[in-house]
Amino acid sequence: MQPRWYRNAVVYVVDPAMFRDSDGDGWGDLRGITDRLDHIRGLGATCLWILPFYASPYRDGGYDITDHLAVDPRFGDVADFALLLDKADELGLRVLVDLVGQHTSIEHRWFEEARRDRNSPYRDYYVWADEPHETDVSPNFPTVEDSVWTWDDEAQQFYRHVFYSHEPDLELGNPRVREELERVMAFWMRMGVAGFRVDAVPYMVERARAADPRHDGHWLLHEMRDFVARRGSEAVLLGEVDVSVEKYADYFAGGKGLTMLLDFWLNNHLFLSFARADATPLADAIAKQPAPPEWGQYANWLRNHDELDLEQLSDDERAEVFEVFAPDESMRAYGRGIRRRLGPMLGTQRRIALAHAVLHSLPGTPIILYGDELGMGDDLDRPQRLSVRTPMQWSDEPNAGFSAAPADQLITRVIDDGPFAYDRVNAYHQTLRRDSLQATLSNMVRTRTGLREIGLGRCRVLDVQCRPVLALRYDHEDTTLVMLANLADERVDFSLPDDDLGDLVDILADSDYDAVESGSGRIEVEGYGYRWLRPRERLFA
After folding, report:
1. The domain spanning residue 151 has which CATH number?
2. Range of the domain at 272
3. Is the dihedral of CA 343, 347, 350, 354 positive or negative?
4. In this structure, which of 62, 165, 177, 487 has its CB flanked by the most CB atoms within 10 Å?
5. Considering the entire predicted model, what is its pTM?
6. Could you tell me if 70 and 139 lie in one domain?
């Protein structure tokens, strides 16, 4: 059996509203993405994940959907999406889209029918109560919503919403709701998507468990996996699963559940290690992580389109990360996360490149947020999670080359002042410089996609007795790979513990280093440096 494509993929995430405006109305759109697919493929990415582009009032960045089967006119139409898929296929890019099945917009036709008539078949599409009562869930945005229940005058009942009050929860225990979800998956798979990033999976499982406690509610994931697998043997369900690491295996379900898990456990400990300049928390997190099933996979990232959610850390650990990367209260969100981009948090190009080197060395599939290849900044004047969602900075032309619309008609302002302003940080300038972050990351991504050991091999943390250094060894068939990263700002030297790791040669490094010869005993890495090495005799094997 051939390895599944996602095992050695690199995923690039695009916010359709923020990436490129093709028609001058101030909003990014699908044609704008299509026009810039060359940039994504040129970076070395092999998969594109597009955030929601469905019909929506757009009160929650498109996750408040009024029609899961329609493209919002601001982004184009279904023909535009088909064209995007066609060009992506030409370039060898697979496409993932969001599947938002936990809730809808309050303006969705289903909810409007449901609130109008208790006898409507759509009434049971949602979760209602005559009086608010305790539930197994609490508001996901505790500083914004103080309850999961909101009174609806027209329905004369309370409806439940784990997220915003304008996003009522779907009752996934209702077979008709699950049939609607299958219609959505069938439609977009027939269009040609490679799979779905599934939003808010634990809350979906919670509703399934309430209806039928079999497999603790994970039977819902079995159904979804069966459905997509019948339509494409390599189709992916990439789940947003922010739960304790001990529960990960339940969501993989031995290969019968989610294909891939977004790994919040590793992400949180990665930033704890960055904050301490100590690889120990990350190394320990890797060691404690359950192995995915044979064709399962973890997905790793540095920053995403939401806040940097640190719920998998203890209160004291979270406070440490806050102190280093979000010292001001305005940089935090919901009492649990950081609403800053990677560039402002890490500060220097060298440290940002080191962070990407760590990301690409971790067991799992790396995910890159649009603009992070440039080191883009954030806009803390935007509310809540929206601070990291700003227009892509293509050039030093007006509006950063994002749109030809007047500046006051843009979906939001471009970053035009400070060290991350678009005249200083943009794709055009970095394309011209061989030493730019974009060039460094592109070389890194291309090297990473050729390293089958990471996607297919066995990973082991090496104890090098040097706390700032993350040292990973991968073995696959008859090949070996060693990946080293120094999280501190000073040069370190240490010994590799395995006797068979002599005579190593760099295949990627931040600087020029001497080869590691058999019997030499010591290896060095510069401050915020990294080295990826193979045994000399396997270099061209």
Report:
1. 3.90.400.10
2. 5-101+176-448
3. negative
4. 487
5. 0.97
6. no
